């Protein structure tokens, strides 16, 4: 049994999905009502896809074939069913109309040829689909006309781990590559895809496309929309906003020649050839001694400046030139970046306390600041600043 398999508990009727392998005998199972439990492998049995088709879906009605028995003959003068592929009966010609003659009279008119849609130049997506209210399955969607060879990995704390590889046909979706819990959103890793397009009998090769996708709350929850290929609602992220450039044969030949030139060692000259070369370049004079350059001293690092004791996070103070070109999301990101920078400089310069003036407003900035402060181990405590001076629009932070 692997991650993503649907299983049933032997000691009950509950079903769920394996989301994590804890050790050689223990796995984590997400039950359908959205809670996870550790279960021993010997207490689980896999649920086959045929079981769901047999017990949960109604079988489609199948029309019976027409036979020559009396039961299947049409009653009451009804015309017999036309065999597949047989020509349709000709409509009677109204009296007085001219009769068609010749071979063209027996041939039905040909339908106009449908113009095929242009091939999609791009359309590779990362899709997160709900399997339970708090459990998401991660898929790779290929909505292009070409096949795709891919690798999938995760990056945590700057360390990469390869997890899956495969090949997708055109207009296809991969099996679940990972399962993520919404309750652990802050700890989600960044996902890394390497994608290589391939189409049989194509006249060009394509460069390898590498895409790293991290998840932020400001953009994640606004990305939900109908996903192509699978036809379900999903959190959708396009991986090929810039499709991989095509490599024509000339570029491939140039790249191969450059690799061969780099791998070919320079010719070795004997003493006579070296003497002739030295005379041709500089006469009989001995070769000058190359000058030794003194190492360039490293530039001193810029001195770290402590932030002011009362740090104003209002947009007017952070960007006095105006904010007409920024959205509300970009404005919030600008304020949070300024807050994080000021807090890190206050900790680095050993400040005892700092006051962040964020204003009352709708409370979004205040809640996000308090959430980050509650998770910082270098914060002794934080509280509302002097209400008689700042009202409810400032937070006092005591640093360790």
List the helices and strands and how they pair.
Elements: E1 6-9, E2 15-21, E3 26-31, E4 35-40, E5 44-46, H1 49-56, E6 124-132, E7 135-142, E8 147-156, E9 159-168, E10 172-173, E11 178-181, E12 190-198, E13 205-206, E14 209-213, H2 217-220, E15 224-226, E16 233-238, E17 246-247, H3 249-263, H4 271-282, E18 310-312, H5 315-318, H6 328-348, E19 353-357, H7 364-374, E20 379-384, H8 387-390, E21 394-399
Parallel strand pairs: 18-19
Antiparallel strand pairs: 1-2, 1-5, 2-3, 3-4, 6-7, 6-16, 7-10, 7-11, 8-9, 8-12, 12-14, 13-17, 15-16, 19-21, 20-21
In short:
With 400 residues, the chain is of the alpha+beta class.
What does this structure look like?
By secondary structure, the chain is of the alpha+beta class. Among the domains are: 6-55, SH3 type barrels (Roll); 124-247, Sandwich (Immunoglobulin-like); 310-399, 2-Layer Sandwich (Ribosomal Protein S8, Chain: A, domain 1), CATH 3.30.1370.110. 20% of the residues lie in helices and 29% in strands. The protein has eight helices and 21 strands. The strands form five sheets. Strands 6, 7, 10, 11, 15 and 16 form a six-stranded antiparallel beta sheet that branches. A five-stranded antiparallel beta sheet has the order 4-3-2-1-5, with no helix packed on it. The protein has a four-stranded antiparallel beta sheet with strand order 9-8-12-14, with no helix packed on it. Strand 1 and strand 2 form a beta hairpin. The radius of gyration is 35 Å and the shape is extended.
